[in-house]
Amino acid sequence: MLYLASSSPRRRELLQQIGVSFEVVKADVDESTRPGEFPIAYVQRLALAKAQAGLAKCQPDDLVLAADTTVVIDHHIIGKPDSFEQAQAIWQILSGRCHQVLTAITLANGQHCQTLVVTTNVYFRDLSAQEMLAYWHTGEPQDKAGGYGIQGKGALFVDKIEGSYSNVVGLPLTETAQLLQQFGCSVW
User: Fold this and answer.
1) Is 188 contained in some domain?
2) Structural domain includes residue 7
3) Whether the Cβ atoms of residue 180 and residue 21 lie closer than 8 Å to each other
4) What Cα–Cα distance (Å) separates residue 113 from each residue in 6, 137, 181?
């Protein structure tokens, strides 16, 4: 049995999109960054911790898929905004620039564990203060790394991407499917 150790509706939708059967298992972990922690190490650590938390609730032969996504600019992790002021500060940094979206995926069972990281470059166009305020009022930015969702109105901020679109949404599908196949879980 495959379990998804994530409460993200976007990850559930992406797995359903490619026809993967799974159950959701709750995997609460502390997502605080550690002093001096590099972004890649951060997402890897969280994806692994979520997989381990999920495995603790499953049988040894079950597979647990976990992921963590973060937005990075100038080697700094950009979190989820708690207020319009925080979101506006994030968008002012991202405006007219390229940033990276990193997703670490961990797939594990009682015997094996594998983690990989996928990076996508996202280019924002220049944003106006009016657009930022209007976007905040959609309610979309509040629970998303970097304060935007490319699968929603946040797409209006994006000039172009280089890499996996589904990675920016929260789960790179090609790499996830390849990882599942390595563990003997066919997506076809």
Assistant:
1) no
2) yes
3) no
4) 17, 41, 14
User: Would you call 143 a catalytic residue per the annotation?
Assistant: no
Mean pLDDT of the chain, nearest integer: 95
Extract the tokens encoding 53. 């938390």
Confidence band, pLDDT 50/70/90 cuts, at residue 60: confident
Q: Which domain holds residue 102?
A: 2-182
Residue 172 counted as domain residue: yes
Is residue 142 situated within a structural domain?
yes
Catalytic residue among 30, 61, 62, 68: 68
The pTM score is 0.93
Count of structural domains, the chain: 1
Rounded to whole angstroms, the Cα distance separating 57 from 179 reads 21
Query: SS3 letters for 46-81?
Result: HHHHHHHHHHCCCCCCCEEEEEEEEEEECCEEECCC
- In tens, the pLDDT along 144-187 reads 889 999 999 999 999 999 999 999 999 999 999 999 999 998 88
